[in-house]
Structure formats: C-alpha cells, structure tokens
Design a protein that fits this description.
By secondary structure, the protein is of the alpha/beta class. It is 36% helix and 13% strand. The protein binds FE2/S2 (inorganic) cluster.
C-alpha cells in the first residue's frame, strides 16, 4: 500500500503523472521534497466562528503540529464540518451523521497516514469517532477541553446545568430580568466545552476509556498549559501510530466498548453517550445492547461527583487526577488488556500513571455518589425497544410513580400550552411529549427535558416524571424517561397515549408501563394510523429514509458495519 503523499492518488489514468501533479501543487505552498517524504498526519480542524466550544482550535493545531514534527512527521490540517449545540437547527443530532460522513470521506480522500481528530462540542467527538472507525486509518482523538467556570454574585456557575437552574428560577419568578441577564455573562467563562458532566465531557472521558486519546487526554480545561501539552503529545503519538499501523478497529474492540460503558455509568454521564457509543460500535460491526448496559449498571456505581449528578465541575475533576483517578477506582471492573493509541494496554497505562492522592471529586467504590450506574434501562409496553432514565439525576421519590398522562402531540403543541394557566395538570401527573424521536422532529432534539408547567413552577414544583422519544442534554437533571423506542412518528405505542391514561414508572423493576390494554391500543392504532414523515429532497430526505432508531445509535442504516480490515 502506498504511503504519505503517494496515498490515494487522484485518478488520471497515469499514477506517475498523478503524483507529479500532486507534488507540483503542494510545492506551491513551499514544501520541500524532504518534508513531503515524511509520514503525513492529517489534523481535522473543526474550528469555526459558530463554535466557541472549539475556540482554542488554532492553539491546539499549532501544538499538534509541533508534536508531529518533533516525531519526524509532516502535519497537514484540513477543515471539516463543525457543529455547536446552540447554533445547529433544528438540532445538532440531525447533523452528526453528516459530519461523520465528511470526516470519513476526507480521511479517505486525502493522503494521510494517520489523523488527529480535534473535536469537543457534543456531537463532534461521536461524529469523528464514527468517521474514523469507518475509514480505519490510524486515528487519535484530541478534545478541545472544558471551559472555565464563572462566578455570579460569588456563586460558582458553569454551562449548562446552571443555565437550566437559573432559567427555571426565572420561569418560577424567583429572579428578575436584571439577574437573568447578568448571569448570562457568567455561565460560559471561556472557550471550551461545557464545564459539567454533559455530553462533551462524557464523550471526552469515554474516548479516553476506549483508548482513543492519549492517557490523561480527557480532562485538562481548554485554556490550560496541560491541554496544550496533551495536544503536542497527541501529534507525536500519531506519528508512532503510523509506524505501528494502529488502526481504530484494533483499539475500539468489544472489550474497549465495555470499558467505555463502565466509565459512562461511573461518571454519571450523559444519556446521549449511550446513543453515540452504540453508533460508533455499529460502524465496527459491534452490537451494544441496552440489556448489557443495564447489566453493567447494576454493579458500576457513580463515583464522579460532578454536576448534574453531583457538585463539582470538569476543572475539579482534572485537579483530582482526571481519568487516571477514576480508572484506578474502577480497575476490578475493567478489561485491562485493551490497546490504547500509545500501543500499550489500558492496564499498562494505569500502572504508568502511578499512585493516587487525596481528593474529593472521585469517590471510592465503598462510598459512591449513587450505588448503581447513572443510567438505567426501562422496558415495557410503552417502549418495546427500550427507554432509558438517568437515575442518578432523578428524584428518588419519583422513580417509583404512577400518574395520569398529560400529553403534548409535538414541540409546537408543547410550546403553545405548557405555560397556559388553564392547563389541567398537577405535580403528580406525568408529562408526555410525542414526535421528538429520530424521524419525528427530525433529529431527536434534546427536548426531552420538558419544562415544569409555569403554574406548577410558581408553586415550587421542581421535578415531575416526563416521558418522550427524544433526548436530553447531558447537563440536565430530573426524573426524565428518554429514547422511548420505537418512536411515535413511526407508530410506536407512544403515539397512541391519550390524556388521562395511567402510566406506571418503576426504576427498581426497570419498567415503563402504559396501563391500557393491548386491544385498546390496537384499536387506537387502527382508528388513527401514523404516517411516518417524508421529505422530497436533499439531506432531509436521506435522513428520513435511512436513520435508525435510538437502540441502533440513530446512525444511517447504510453506514453501519463494513469497516475495512486493518491497514486496508
Ligand atoms: Fe458545546 Fe456544551 S455547547 S459542549
């Protein structure tokens, strides 16, 4: 197989001419033959003015390049799609698969012997790991790192658990226009990803557990010297991976995914992590089942004391030793023989990290934040394909609850009626939102965190059972059932729930039951059959025709599996 600049020549029918032409063009940028003979490390640049979570991309690229060159390689950065949570309409998840295709195809199309993937904001790391898994060129993840925390009237705040907390106070009329406006300046104190255990921090930790970052790569905040040193080490490691042909399929094995799930459960990680890990594994032909996730959760306690399940922020996790400290605690539960990007096993890297030290962010297994994993899997006639709940961030009293359904047909219906004082709702009711699944919205938006109806919020209600086929931000907390599968937009049972139906949630029994007979549900389905949404053109059409359900990772069906063999 050809390497370096000779790799993947453009087809002109004459390979000698193709290389001649390629070299002529690149020499226009001032490169020498000596530089062009080196192993090439591509650097996927996701810096964008629309993505402040990646605002340190220029500094990271400079440091990665330094690392590559110190190790004797030639760095070549190139742009791909960048996705920021707040700047992606209708929702970032709608674009994740598009970014994964962009990443995969640009890795494949351009000559590179290894690639450094610079990602961070929620959907970017999953998209890059999915693309890298499919391209199967030696790849290493570099996350941008978390933002710093801010201070509002001497209270420490950070995006975006505190964004939601302050907005809930504002809705409950506990704080005024002036205060909500002043806290808005403090929630995001620097560039970088959300400072709590949201999806970005979750995916950073999970990527390290998979073996796809350098050891210690998950936790340094974006604006620190530690983050820049991680970038330099990442560049040097990428060059070594060229020599050892360390492709993603050798690192991201079934055992590595089990390690990643353990970590997801132990950090009180984002529920989105389940979907993303399922999608990445699916690219490698590995099926992650919800049943296995639940099994692992039974004996994996939540140990990391970070918001929204706990108290601290990512920078505290870093000061506490980051993933080294967590992995040390989880050691008896992990597969230690999985490979990492360094070519050494996870167990060897843990040995090399040395002894722990006194800290109060990562708890010992004898004194967990929550005795089981952060996420529990629910089954029942309302979700024959499963649903999940972040039990570590739910209200203990509501986890065993039966109530009357208050149903919203879609997001518009929710926006129109949720704050209507005439809405027939009490704190004991269960809020149900339909049509926010993979096809429904489309793109499965993070709207599963339904707001507490204003009249109840004003009365001091902080949590209610909420059920939907959508997702929830990793920064949110509450007794919230998500990812109900199959979704309502394709005729899942959720589509046929009516106002006043009784629903029973039992996290202890892992069940979510609609207390309506099968015959009645079948009659409702017959009387009002669901027509799945369709689009006439473009990406929207491709999305609706090929997107899979939550239990398959919301990937496009034609992107799963078929990863080329190592070195191909
Ligand atoms: Fe980018 Fe939270 S918005 S990580």
């Amino acid at each position: 197989m050809s390497n370096g600049l000779k790799k993947g020549l453009t087809s002109y029918g004459d390979s000698g001419f193709s290389l001649f032409l390629r070299k002529a063009f690149i020499k226009g940028a001032g490169y020498t033959d000596d530089a062009l003979d080196r192993p090439i490390v591509g650097i996927a640049n996701t810096g964008s003015a629309y993505n402040p979570c990646h605002g340190n991309a220029p500094q990271l690229i400079e440091a990665v390049k330094r690392g590559v060159m110190l190790a004797g390689g030639l760095p070549m950065d190139f742009p791909t799609i960048s996705i920021h949570e707040s700047f992606s309409s209708p929702t970032s998840m709608y674009l994740r698969n598009l970014m994964s295709i962009d990443t995969e195809e640009m890795i494949r199309a351009q000559p590179m012997d290894a690639v450094v993937l610079i990602g961070g904001c929620d959907k970017t790391v999953p998209a890059q790991l999915m693309g890298a898994a499919s391209a199967n060129v030696p790849a290493i993840q570099l996350v941008t790192g978390s933002m710093l925390t801010g201070s509002h009237r001497s209270e420490r705040v950070g995006a975006c658990t505190d964004c939601r907390r302050f907005w809930a106070k504002y809705r409950a009329e506990e704080i005024d226009d002036g205060e909500i406006s002043s806290v808005n300046n403090q929630l995001v104190a620097s560039v970088g990803t959300c400072s709590v255990m949201g999806t970005a921090s979750t995916m950073a930790c999970v990527a390290e557990a998979l073996g796809m970052t350098v050891p210690g790569g998950a936790s340094p905040p974006a604006v620190t010297a530690d983050r820049i040193r991680v970038a330099e080490r990442t560049g040097a490691t990428a060059v070594a991976m060229v020599k050892s042909k360390l492709t993603p399929d050798r690192i991201m094995t079934a055992k590595a995914f089990e390690n990643a799930l353990r970590v997801l459960l132990a950090i009180g990680g984002s529920t989105n992590g389940v979907i993303h890990l399922t999608a990445v594994a699916g690219r490698l032909g590995i099926d992650l089942s919800l049943a296995r996730l639940d099994e692992l959760g039974r004996d994996t306690p939540v140990l990391v004391d970070l918001k929204p399940s706990g108290q601290h922020y990512m920078e505290d996790f870093h000061h506490a030793g980051g993933m080294h400290t967590l992995l040390r605690e989880l050691k008896p539960l992990l597969h230690l023989d999985t490979l990492t990007v360094t070519g050494r096993t996870l167990g060897e890297e843990m040995e090399a990290a040395g002894e722990g030290f006194a800290q109060d962010v990562v708890r010992p297994r004898s004194n967990p934040i929550f005795p089981q994993g952060g996420i529990a899997v629910l089954q029942g006639n309302l979700a024959p394909g499963g649903a999940i709940i972040k039990q570590s961030a739910a209200h203990p009293k509501l986890m065993e609850h039966e109530g009357r359904a208050v149903v919203f047909e879609n997001l518009e219906d929710l926006a129109k009626r949720i704050d209507d004082d005439k809405l027939d709702v009490t704190a004991e009711d269960i809020l149900v939102l339909k049509n926010i699944g993979p096809l429904g919205a489309p793109g499965m938006p993070e709207a599963g965190y339904l707001p507490i109806p204003k009249k109840l919020a004003r009365a001091g209600v902080k949590d209610m059972v909420r059920i939907s086929d959508g997702r929830m931000s990793g920064t949110a907390a509450g007794t919230i059932v998500l990812h109900v599968t199959p979704e309502s937009a394709i005729g899942g049972p959720l589509a046929y729930v009516k106002n006043g139906d009784r629903i029973k949630l039992s996290v202890k029994d892992r069940s979510i039951a609609l207390l309506v007979s099968d015959a009645e549900l079948a009659a409702r389905a017959k009387a009002n059959p669901v027509t799945p949404p369709r689009a006439s053109r473009g990406y929207h059409k491709l999305f609706l025709q090929t997107v899979t359900q939550a239990d398959k990772g919301v990937d496009f069906d034609f992107l799963r599996g078929q990863t080329p063999k190592s070195g191909a």
